[in-house]
Amino acid sequence: MLRKLLISFWLLSLPALAWADSQWALEQSTLTYHVSHPLHQFDGVSHAAKGKGICREGECNFLIAAPVKSFDSGDSNRDLHMLQVTRGAEFPLVTVRTRLPESATTSATINLDLEVQFAGQTFEYKQVPFKRSVQGSETRIRGTIPVKLTDFKIDPPTLLTMPIKNEIPVRVDLSWGPIR
Amino acid sequence: MLANIARRSRTCLAGLAGALLIIIWAPSLMAEVMGELTGTVTDPAGTPVAFAFVTTTNVETGRALPAATGMDGIFRFTLPSGNYRIKFESRDFETQEIPEAVVSASSRVIENCVLEAVAQTQSNITSDPAQKTAPSPSGKPAEPSLEDLGITPSQAKGNAREQALLDRRSHMLKIHQRLGLITIAPLGATLITSAFAGGRETSRASRDAHAALGTATVGMYLSTAYFAIRAPRVPGTKTRGPIRLHKTLAWIHGPGMILTPILGEMAFAQKSRGERVHGIASAHGPVAIVTAGAFGLAVVSVSFKF
After folding, report:
1. Domain A21-178, what architecture?
2. Are the beta carbons of B234 and A80 separated by less than 8 Å?
């Protein structure tokens, strides 16, 4: 009788083991936007992103947020202008949400659906490929989000009356570590 | 002699009047039609609800602007005139919405809100995806929130005043940039006509043309400088990058643009008397070249990446 009870308990506990909760914290991050202008090419970089992932019942939800102000292009005047056109004072954060099956977190290439909130608008990028590599306890995710200014209803800023390109791809390099 | 002075004065006055018109007219371009939307969020007992999320959405443009109430339950927006939908959200309270609030220029609209407590079995879901915490069957949130990242509501809250400051700054600097580019035309023409104004065999007409173009250049330059000087500063910003060179060069072309016409006037008078340009007036040409060079470099410094 006791043996049957033990086996039953073990069988019932299997799903719970399979869906063991885990949490991830963003340990290091580099977000880089690239701007093209007929006279200029420049990058704006932020290392100030914060992020967390919660895996529960076979599904993982991740949230990453970075202050718009934290992007540095090496020119204070340009950064202030970018802050103005992206409504960075009204909407101080850029946030990215994604949801994926826990099983997908172990693949070398992960295709993610991203929900990006920026400049008071929300836009979804479907199936954005990211490379995943593991270094010790750290999991590194790298990829490029094909952001366009028009996705967020931002008018392209101009220099010498020439507008920048609508495409501002954002390179993402994130190192995640488990929360113990 | 007096007739000459009168004619030169008319030329200079025409140039300065043009510049003055630009200075007077351009700020009107910046006039923004703003109004204030404010109110207090309370619970049914009249107690202020602190840190409630208040989102205004412009009905025409769809542009949303979030804010949070203070400890006193008060929220405040400075908005362009238009029709707005207002949404009130707070933990443990039902979400409420005011479908239409009309904000008009230079007016104050007050929209108070009383939030009803949510039923205990009902979960709180905010409309902002960055804030939502969808509960799992176990009752624990499965999605991380901004609070989980250590971001407080005040850090996530927008600042309409700061945005208005940035808008004003960018607007003025755009005018500064355009006027600076336009200034290149009379500046170049002044330099070209200098070849016909400074030699031994020059006519009065060529000197007059050079002087008129020079006056127009100075007028345009002063207008350009006005918009850079009057553009609001953003507190806590440290100047970095090529803009430093652009600002430093102003210390060369700024005094140069004042000195050049003074020396030019002296040279003009000497030439009009049939004298060879001499003394300090002979520095007019070199000072003008250095000034034009510094101005050109200032334009290039922010136009190309080195």
Report:
1. Beta Barrel (2.40)
2. yes
